[in-house]
Amino acid sequence: MLCIFYQQKGGFNMKGISIILLIFGLIGFGCSSKKVALAPEAAGKQDSVSQAQPKSDETKKAGEGSTKTEQKDALSKPEIESRELPLRSKRMPEILTDIYFEFDRYDIMEDAKPILKSVAGHLIKNAEYKILIEGHCDERGTNEYNLALGERRSQSVKKYILSLGVVSSRMEVISYGEEKPVCAEKTENCWAKNRRVHFVVSERKN
127 phi and psi, to 5 degrees? Predict the structure, then answer.
């Protein structure tokens, strides 16, 4: 096209040069416009990548938070159980009060039965415990006789608790006779305190 223009005019002049420059300017502007049009698309891709990255981080954080919560829940159960066990241990001795007997007798008195029923009920509810039933006597009589009497008292209590639903394997009996008095005075009131059955609670061994 330039050659034709040149031939027709017989050479270049200022007007021709201006037209040529204008043509090249338009061509350059067109190329520049195409590049500008592509820029927003590339920017959009960068934005989408940058937006996707925080979501990935948020997902990771959410997963870590969930794991920590599960670990906390898992650790909280043993803590609750470790707190409950001492509470149960404290409750058991509270209801394991001594029961008392008449002189030279081993039958269960009426006022002792509610205590034994309470002992049986707590043993049934708390299967991890067992009891030792100790038979005691006052100092009157021979040592051999009092050991035998203490044995009969502890066996009488075991039999009664057994009738309330507690299995025999959770109860042990022993007699101390007159060997472990709680009162040393030689009075009827003191002797009455020594004629007793005492309970000792302990945890069962698997």
Answer: -70, -10
Q: What is the pLDDT of residues 108-151, one digit of tens each?
A: 999 999 999 999 999 999 988 999 999 999 999 999 999 999 99
Assess if residue 159 is contained within a domain: yes
pLDDT of 51 strictly over 60: no
- The amino acid sitting at 88 is R
Number of domains in the chain: 1
The residue range of the domain holding 175 is 90-203
* Residues contacting 133, CB < 8 A, separation 6+: 154, 157, 158, 171, 172, 173, 174, 197, 198, 199
First to last CA, the chain: 108
Cα distances from 187 to residues 101, 124, 172, 192, 193, in angstroms, run 16, 39, 31, 9, 10
CATH number at residue 158: 3.30.1330.60
User: The tokens 């969930």 sit on which residue?
Assistant: 66
Q: Does some domain include residue 143? A: yes
Query: How far is residue 1's CA from residue 117's CA, in Å, rounded to a whole number?
Result: 121
Contact 119, 96 (CB under 8 A): yes
Q: Is 105 inside a domain boundary?
A: yes
Domain presence at residue 24: no
